[in-house]
Write a structure and sequence with these properties.
Chain lengths: ~230, ~475
């Protein structure tokens, strides 16, 4: 907290010394920040494995960056009167500097973040194996199944995991074989009468957007997932 | 692709020219709204400063018209060769609209000139002059609505575009969301740009009177900017809800798949905007005599805003999309959020964090109002770093517009028109985050370089004359 004394001394700098800067030192030891840093770095390894709060290295770095940034913000807030350039050219230069630094920082963040690889068109599969074609289709944006479904650890979680689709599908609707169920479910999406409980029914109906042989391929693929 | 554009490539050419066109368009649409409100308010309150602010800003806006047209033409040329098939499709669908567009743009330009140059002659007939300003804004908004229809259509065309009537094409699933979001954001940009001009003028002012005026102008610009900024997350929510209802796979592509990290960066950008605007308010409140007691709230306020920003940004994992697996040597638990903290990565936590930031910004503003009402404002005695905050915020705002605009375009994935016209050019793929950031950065810096020139002519030289 800013004390009364600091406040008046700040006002003093402002009025009497005009444009002189307050020396850029921290006025007090930032105990709070040190404590938070300790929490970020020292605590996770101490937690038991299964506790579910062990933040990994990437997160530790993320939180540290956020803390460093916060310290900078508070430091800036503590300043009473940062000096400014006197000439017009100087002002223009300083503004240009702010722009280059700000945009540079934002671009650097974008570049440092995780990047996905560009697709390679030669990955197209031309194979006589329906299940292989179905697998490729499953991971392509065209069908976008992977956006909602996980298979063997990859994919999204809005829909149920399909790693054992063939096994599960056989017991979904009484009297319907796995193959029939999978085909009808895919065609109807969320509009199909049977819905896996516990999920928001948002699966698109693929009966329109995918060709019948594409659906056949997908069914063939899912049937291999025992 | 019939022909490509050498060296830069067709996609980059369209990207930069289109983005610049949109930046200028946003400025010439947003600033006049701000200007007319100021003129009206000045007329009502008999406060001369509003009048001066409105007139000085309008001169800059008028100069920006030329650059809006030039960048628009460059954008059109870039589209013509490489993307002629897309243009043919859009002309087929929206024929009449492409006729109305230049017509309204013409009316808008005429009104803008009229509004600016009748300022003196109509000084005694303020009502009429303000009416011209309002007409200018109405026509300007219509121009925006027309082109928004085309942009929104490309992402969310109606179910069967072949048989759809023109109104159905125009009033597609995300037209109103895009309209709302762009309209509010344009006013925000207008306010922040005015604050930027004010900051420059303040920092170079020689007399105390000028400093007092430009201090006030920066305050007013920032006020409009922040007031509308607070509505933007909600407008963004409405817009993304429309996208979600239209096709859940687009929403997944954005929130969980390839664009998920783009939204982490968005959290950073919007947090920076709020931090900058709040920093300005907390530093500038110091020039209000009698406001000292309020400074006790400064630290807690920033602690909450910073903590909320971290919650907003914290990612669910450090994977760029749904199909990439952890690189060799990195364990999954190192880059995936731990189970018990997983709620931090969900929409609910993010929404709460945004609400907290907006709420505190609002409270800060209320503190400020109170302080002004009770104490005395010493206009012109603001610390320079507050002016640099007004310089920083527009830089982030414009970059954010470029970046979020890219997200909107990339959401179409490998389609020119989603599910209707496939992008079969060599540039059909989604650009990774780094490339997108570089493009938004280039567009931002070019925009401000041109703006510096415009501003120099309109504000600095205009004053000397």
């Amino acid at each position: 907290m800013v004390t009364q004394r600091e406040r008046t001394s700040g006002a003093h700098v402002h009025t009497a010394a005009g444009g002189r800067a307050v020396t850029p030192t921290l006025k007090r030891v930032p105990w709070g920040v040190i404590a938070l840093l300790a929490v970020v770095w020292a605590l996770p390894p101490l937690l038991p494995e299964g506790f579910g709060l062990r933040f990994g290295r990437a997160f530790q770095l993320f939180f540290t960056a956020a803390l460093v940034f916060s310290v900078a913000v508070f430091w800036l807030l503590d300043q009473e009167h940062i000096p400014q350039p006197k000439s017009t050219a100087g002002v223009l230069g300083s503004i240009a500097l702010v722009y280059v630094a700000t945009v540079g920082f934002l671009v650097a963040v974008a570049v440092a973040a995780p990047q996905f690889a560009l697709p390679r068109p030669e990955d197209e599969v031309a194979t006589a194996d329906a299940a292989k074609r179905g697998e490729a289709l499953f991971w392509k944006p065209e069908a976008a199944c992977f956006q909602c479904h996980t298979i063997a650890g990859r994919g999204g979680t809005r829909g149920p995991e399909l790693s054992h689709a063939a096994t599960v599908a056989g017991s979904r609707v009484p009297g319907l074989a796995a193959e029939q169920y999978l085909r009808e479910k895919m065609k109807g999406g969320a509009a199909y009468p049977f819905k896996v409980p516990g999920y928001v029914p948002m699966m698109p109906a693929f009966g329109q957007s995918l060709a019948p042989d594409q659906i056949d391929d997908l069914v063939a693929y899912l049937l291999t997932l025992k | 692709m019939p022909i490509d554009i050498p060296i830069v490539g067709a996609r980059s050419a369209v990207w930069i020219t289109g983005q610049l066109h949109l930046f200028f368009a946003a400025f010439i649409l947003g600033a006049p709204i701000f200007v007319v409100i100021c003129e009206w308010w000045g007329h009502r309150s008999r406060d001369e400063r509003y009048e001066r602010l409105a007139h000085e800003t309008m001169k800059v806006v008028l100069l920006a018209y030329g650059f809006t047209a030039i960048s628009g033409a460059a954008f059109g040329f870039a589209l013509m060769g490489p993307y002629s098939d897309v243009m043919v499709h859009l002309f087929e669908k929206f024929g009449p609209l492409f006729g109305l567009y230049p017509l309204f743009f013409l009316i808008e330009t005429v009104l803008a000139y009229l509004y600016c140059y009748t300022w003196g002659p109509l000084a005694r007939r303020k009502g009429l002059h303000i009416l011209i300003g309002v007409a200018l804004n109405v026509v300007g908004t219509v121009v925006m609505l027309l082109m928004n229809a085309v942009g929104a259509y490309m992402l969310t065309p109606p179910a069967s575009p072949e048989s759809a009537g023109i109104w159905e094409l125009v009033n597609n699933a995300t037209w109103s969301g895009l309209n709302l979001h762009r309209f509010v954001a344009n006013v925000t940009l207008g306010g922040f740009m005015v604050a930027l001009f004010a900051a420059f003028m303040f920092l170079t002012a020689k007399t105390h009177d000028d400093r007092a005026f430009y201090d006030w102008m920066g305050f007013t610009g920032n006020f409009i900017g922040v007031a509308t900024l607070m509505a933007l997350p909600l407008a963004g929510y409405v817009y993304s809800k429309e996208i979600f209802l239209y096709d859940a796979t687009i929403a997944t592509f954005m929130m969980a798949d390839k664009l998920s990290w783009f939204f982490v960066v968005q959290g950073l950008l919007v947090s920076l905007l709020f931090l900058g605007a709040n920093y300005y308010m907390w530093v500038s409140i110091r020039r209000v005599t009698g406001a000292e007691p309020y400074r006790a709230y400064q630290r807690p306020t920033f602690t909450v805003i910073l903590a909320a920003s971290v919650v907003w940004m914290v990612p669910q994992n450090f994977l760029p999309d749904l199909v990439t697996t952890a690189p060799a040597g990195v364990a999954a638990q190192d880059i995936v959020i731990p189970e018990r903290a997983a709620f931090l990565g969900l929409m609910m936590a993010k929404a709460l964090a945004v609400t907290a930031i907006i709420l505190l910004t609002f409270l800060t503003y209320m503190c400020y109002r109170r302080a002004i009402a009770r104490g005395t404002m010493r206009w012109g005695e603001i610390a320079p770093q507050a002016q640099y905050a007004l310089v920083f915020v527009p830089a982030v705002a414009v970059y954010t517009m470029g970046f979020m605009g890219a997200i909107r375009e990339l959401a179409r994935q490998d389609w020119h028109v989603y599910n209707v016209l496939r992008d079969t050019t060599p540039y059909w793929y989604t650009t990774p985050l780094g490339h997108t950031g570089v493009m938004a950065g280039i567009a931002t810096l070019v925009f401000f370089t041109v703006m510096a020139f415009i501003f120099w002519i309109g504000f600095k030289l205009g004053q000397a004359a």
